[in-house]
Amino acid sequence: MKMRSIVFAGLVCTLGLASFNASAADNLKTVAAVNENMATLAGQTVSVQGKVVKVNRGIMKRNFIHVQDGTGDANTNNLIFTSKQIASVGDQVTISGVVVLNRDFGGGYMYPLLVEDASIAGK
Question: Within 10 Å of residue 100's Cβ, how many Cβ atoms?
Fold first, then answer.
């Protein structure tokens, strides 16, 4: 019986009847965790759920969206995302993007931590 189960599982996978699709919710991180682990997260896609607390629209062809989730201290409680999409202050969102370190746009716009090319979904 055990052998049949193994063979069936292999057949299901081979035929593509089963798929693995990790959703953003499976990989959620807190704002504090992204700040605290930014070096190891650099270049990776992260997802955060939180409240939009500030939005700067249309700067350098992107929107800068500040998200907080109640975690962290004064140095680690805010995460800035860039996105072509827009959100409004007070929105509860799930937002995902790629962690970038030491992003320098010039003109004094330097970000030690930024999450870029973010996609936004309502919570």
Answer: 18
